[in-house]
């Protein structure tokens, strides 16, 4: 089982490092910055809460969980329509038209299966799979110049839908996602990294947000909640979490327009 959407900072390549650092036994599993949720799909916990500040992304999770068959039908239609267009110019026009409709939708209310399908389409057909928003919160990645696209793997979507059946899915602030946690629960924090690309949400993620996250990490530690966090290996982050256990790991960043910029060193920080 693997994530059904490509997301900046996805953890698929870091899974071996994350697996071996998880506690042996946990209560509720929580990802306040779900993104592609690679660790969730890898571990398939029985009790889980998935949250992300991006309501468009979390609508996709809800539709995969609750309306997988209808979503597959919508994705198949998008895939067929795009792939049967005979010129790259026509494909480009179709992409920008779909992006414009996507950006015109109100994602605070009345989200649909079609919104989720359109989300997957523009994510898979944009440049380098680079989900990116402007300050107004509108998707603004350029056309990807793909002759053909594959939008879904139905077997994988079926497995993902099964894994999500008992998961609580929400969209909001990371602190809200952790409000009711108790001793023995486990949180994997995978925030936008310090000093790296964070334009996949319109309002970004500031130094003050990083400090607020660290305060939450400290509060959860006092409540007996297991916490694991990944972030950039910077002096700022190392200083914030200086009282905790952290290890440096090598990691590839798959979403970077410069291939030479895809190697990096990250920190995995734990309170246990």
Describe, in short, the structure shown.
By secondary structure, the protein is an alpha/beta fold.
Describe the overall structure:
About 3% of the residues have low confidence. The protein is of the alpha/beta class and 272 residues long. The chain folds into 2 domains: 141 residues, Vaccinia Virus protein VP39 (Rossmann fold), CATH 3.40.50; 91 residues, Adenine-specific Methyltransferase, Domain 2 (Adenine-specific Methyltransferase, domain 2, Orthogonal Bundle), CATH 1.10.1020. The chain is 39% helix and 14% strand. 39% of the residues are buried. Helix 3 crosses helix 6, helix 3 crosses helix 7 and helix 4 packs across helix 6.
Secondary structure topology:
Layout lengths: L14 H5 L9 E3 L6 H6 L4 E4 L3 H12 L1 H17 L3 H17 L8 H13 L28 H11 L2 E4 L3 H4 L8 E4 L17 H16 L3 E7 L2 H6 L4 E8 L10 E8 L2
Parallel strand pairs: 1-2, 1-4, 2-3, 4-5
Antiparallel strand pairs: 5-7, 6-7
Helix pairs in contact: 3-6, 3-7, 4-6, 5-6
Question: Which key terms come to mind for this protein?
Answer:
272 residues, alpha/beta, Adenine-specific Methyltransferase, domain 2, Rossmann fold
Order of helices and strands: HEHEHHHHHEHEHEHEE
The CATH superfamily of the largest domain appears as Vaccinia Virus protein VP39
Beta-strand content bin: 5-15%
Class per helix and strand makeup: alpha/beta
The pLDDT mean sits at 92
Our count of helices gives 10
Q: Mind describing the biggest β-sheet?
A: 7 strands, mixed
Radius of gyration: 19 Å
- Uncertain regions: pLDDT < 50 for 5+ in a row? 255-262
Distance from first to last alpha carbon = 28 Å
Quickly count the domains.
Answer: 2
Second CATH tier, the architecture of the largest domain: 3-Layer(aba) Sandwich
Number of strands: 7
CATH class descriptor name of the largest domain: Alpha Beta
Strand order of the largest sheet: 3-2-1-4-5-7-6
The portion of residues assigned to helices is: 25-40%
Instruction: Give the CATH topology of the largest domain.
Output: Rossmann fold
Question: What is the global morphology?
Answer: globular
